[in-house]
Amino acid sequence: MRKRFSSPRTAVLAVAAALAAAAGSAAAAPPKDLDAYVAKAMQTFEAPGMSVAVVEDGKAVWAKGYGVRKLGEPAPADAHTVFPIGSNTKAFTATALAMLVDEGKLSWDDKVEARLPGFQMSDPYATGEMTVVDMLTHRSGLGLGQGDLMVFPETDFTRREIVDHLRYLKTPRTLRSGYAYDNVLYIAAGQMVENVSGRRWEDFMHTRVFAPLGMNDAKASFGEIKPGSNAAWPHARLDGPLRGLGHIQALGRVENIDAAAPAGAINASAEDMTKWLEVQLDRGALPDGKGRLFSEAQSAMLFTPQTIIPTGPVPGPLSAASSSFKDYALGFIIQDYRGHKVILHGGAVTGGISMVVLIPEKHVGFAVMTNSEEGGALRSVYFHLLDHYLGETPIDWIDASVKARETQTAQALAAIKASPAGAPDPSKPPSLPLSGYAGTYSDPWYGTITIRQDGAGLNINFDRTHDMKGPLEPVRYNTFRTRFTDRTIEDAYVTFSLDAEGKVDHVSMKPISPLADFSFDFQDLSFTPVKGK
Fold first, then answer.
1. Is this structure's pTM higher than 0.90?
2. How many distinct helices (H) and strands (E) make up the chain?
3. Closest Cα to residue 221, out of 254, 175, 195?
4. DSSP per residue over 47-97, as a string?
5. 12-409 falls under which CATH superfamily?
6. For 11-47, how does the pLDDT look when each residue is reduced to its tens digit (9 = 90+)?
7. Cα-Cα end-to-end distance for the chain
8. How far apart are CA 366 and CA 344, in angstroms?
9. CATH code at 422-529
C-alpha cells in the first residue's frame, strides 16, 4: 500500500485558489424528474422515508421530505423532519477543530497527547507522535472499526471512558502505515473540542455551528429528540436468513449512541443540510455576508487529501461508479466519479443512512438521507443527481442497484450455507459439559461478558451492552453461535480455546454474516476467564 503523509500546510493555498475559481461557475437546475425518481427508488426498495437537500451557486434550490416518518403512522416526512446523518457528523467535528485553529487555540500539527490529557494508544510511538490531522484521517494504526463495540449497539460507556480505553486496543499497524476507517478517534476528537474550547461538543455544535448557520431543526445527539417531535424513525429488515433481508419494519426503539456523538449522532433536516452545504461550498462564509464560520485557509485544509484509500473496480451492475482515486481528507472523502472530482461522505446508524456530496467546480452540493438501511434507494438518488449535475449520460441506477443487491444477497447466502453455522454438526458435540463454559470473561478494552448455564443450554450477556444477550447454540466441538434476542445485533461465532488441563483459556469471536457491518468488531475481542467467577 502506498503512503501519503501530507503536511497540514501543504497544498492549502492551491486548493483555496481552485475553489475560488470554481465559485462563480453556473449550475443547472435540479433534475425535472427528481420527485418521480425519488418516489420510484423508495417504492422499489420499500424505503419508508427520505429527505433530499440541494444547493446551487450558494443558494438552496431543493429541500423536501418524502414518504413517512414511521411505517404504520400517517405523519409525513417534510423539509423539517430530522434524519440521522451518521458519520457525516465527522465533518462537523473536523470543522469545529478548524474553527479552533482559526482562533489560535489549536494547530493541526499539535500532538494529540498535548491537547487531550490522558490520551494513550497501545503503541507508544503512536501515543507520542499522533497529530490532530492523524486523528482525523484514519491512519492511526487501528483496524477497521476497531473498538466500535464500546459504542454500537448502545452501551453504558461514557465518552471519557472510550478515550481512556484506546490504550487497550492492540493496533495491527503502525501510525501512518495505511488506511483503516475508525470511529473511536473521532470520539476522541470531540473530547478534544471540549478540552480546548471549554464547551461540551454538543454545546459547541449548537452555539458555534447550528445557530450561526440557521440550522434550527438540528440535534447534536439522539437524546435531544423528544417523543412526538418531527423526527424520522429507524427501520430495517430483521426477519430474514440474514440481517438486512426479510420484511422492512420499524425498529422497537431509537438507539442512543450519544457517547459517540462526535463520530455520528447528529440528526438534521433537509432545510438544515442546505445551510451546511452552503457554508462548505462558500469556503466558510456565512450567508448574506454575515461574516465567516471559518477561514478560506481552513476550508482548503478540510478538503486537502491526507490518506490514500485503496481503490479497485466495482464489479457488476455498479461498475460505472468505479473510482480511479480516493483519499480521506478531514471528515470528507475526495474521489472521482465518472471522471469528475467530487467530495463526499456517507453515514450510517442503526435504521438510517445518509450521503453528502459536494461538487466545488460546479458550486453544487446535495444531501440524501433515509430512515432505513436501504442502500439501493440512497445510492440510486445521489448517483442520479451526480449524473445530472456533471452532465453525464444518465444510468438507470435503480435497476443497477436491484441487480447488485440480488448478486450480493445470493453470495452471502451461499457463504452462510457453506459455513459451520449453516450446518451445525450434532456428531461433534461440545468437548466439555456446559458448566465448563459458564463463567465471567474479560476483554481489556470492552470489559466483561457473562456466560451462564440455563437448564439444558448456555446464555451469553455482554455486560456493558444493554440488549446484547441471548442463547448460545452448539455448532461443533468448542464453537457455539449467538442468537441475540435483539435482532438488530449481528450474530457471531463464539469459540472457547482450552488449555492443557482442558479448562477454558480464552474466548474469541467473529461475525457470522459476510454482510455484517464492520462496527460489529467481534474479531478484535479476546476474553480470558475472571478468576473466582
1. yes
2. 15, 20
3. 254
4. -SEEEEEEEETTEEEEEEEEEBSSTTS-PBP-TT-BEE-GGGHHHHHHHHH
5. DD-peptidase/beta-lactamase superfamily (3.40.710.10)
6. 443 444 444 444 434 457 999 999 999 999 999 999 9
7. 45
8. 10
9. 2.40.128.600
